[in-house]
Write a structure and sequence with these properties.
Layout (H helix, E strand, L loop, with lengths): L9 H12 L15 H7 L5 H14 L1 H13 L4 H10 L4 H22 L8 H11 L4 H23 L4 H22 L12 H10 L10
Helix pairs in contact: 2-10, 3-4, 3-8, 3-9, 4-7, 4-8, 5-7, 6-7, 7-8, 8-9
Length: 220
Amino acid sequence: MATAGPMATPTDAALLTLAQWFSPGFPVGAFSYSHGQDWLVSTGALHSAAGVQTWIARVLTEGSGRNDLILLAQAWKGGDLSELDGLARALVPAAERLTETGEQGEAFVRTVNAVWGLDLPPLAYPVAVGAAARALDLPLEPTARMYLHAFAAALTSAAVRAIPLGQTEGQAIVHALSPLVDRLCRDDLHAPLDALGGAVFAADIAAMNHETQYSRMFRS
C-alpha cells in the first residue's frame, strides 16, 4: 500500500498560488504589451539579444520595475490603496502604458476576486498584486520576486516575437536577469514612497512614439 506524501505546508500553498498568479496562463494579457519595445524594434534600435537584455535591465532598475516593486510592497504593508493606485497611474509616462498597468490590474483583480473570494476594487497592477497578497497572507518577498521575474519574462517574450529572437536566446536573457531581480528585491523592497522615480527616458519616449506607430504587434 502506497504511503501518503508529505503534507503541504502553508508556504507550499503560498508558492503554488504565486506560481499560478505569475504563470503565462494567468489572464492578465501580459503577452499583448511590449512596454515600448515594439517601436524600438521598428526603428532598428533594438535588434539583438544583448540589446534586449540591457534594455530590460534598465527598465527594471531605473524605471517601472523598481517603482512597481515599491508600490507592491507598500500595498502589501497596508498602505492606502486609493492613494497608491493614483500614484501608480500618475507615474506612467504614456497613455498606452497607463492602459497596460490599468487593464492588467483590473483583469488580475477580476480573477482573484472570483477564484479566491476577495473583494478588491480595480487597481493598477502592482498595487492589485500587493493588496491581494496581503489579503491572502502570502509572503511579501516571494510575491515581489515572482512579480518582477514575470515582468522581465513578459518583456523578453515580446522581444522574442518582435525582433524575432530564438526561444533559447530568450531563456538566456531571463536567466541572466534573475540576479538583478534578486538584488532589487533585496535592496529596494522596503524603500519608502519617497524613493519612487525613474530615469529611462528612451523607454518612455519609445512608449509615447508607439501610440502613433502605423504597423505594430503590441498594445504598448
